[in-house]
Amino acid sequence: MRHIGSLPDQAAARRFRAWLLSRDTATDIEFEEDQWAIWIHDEDEVDSAREEFDAFATEPEAERYIRAEQALKTTRQAE
Length: 79
Fold this sequence. Notes:
The structure is a single chain. By secondary structure, the protein is an alpha+beta fold. Helix content is 53%, strand content 23%. The chain contains three helices and three strands, in the order βαββαα.
């Protein structure tokens, strides 16, 4: 696993994780030193995940991220 960045709050980290999962990128988040660390499982996906992280950091409330988060919640509830 590779660390690609950290976010200040859990809600943002969960939203970003949902976005990456919607793009079939296996991801974990962990609370470390007052930040939420984003970890990518597959080394081959690190570069694209970093690009996604940079895009998310500029606009974390974008509709695409909110939709991905809602879709993940719906899927998990159905399971």
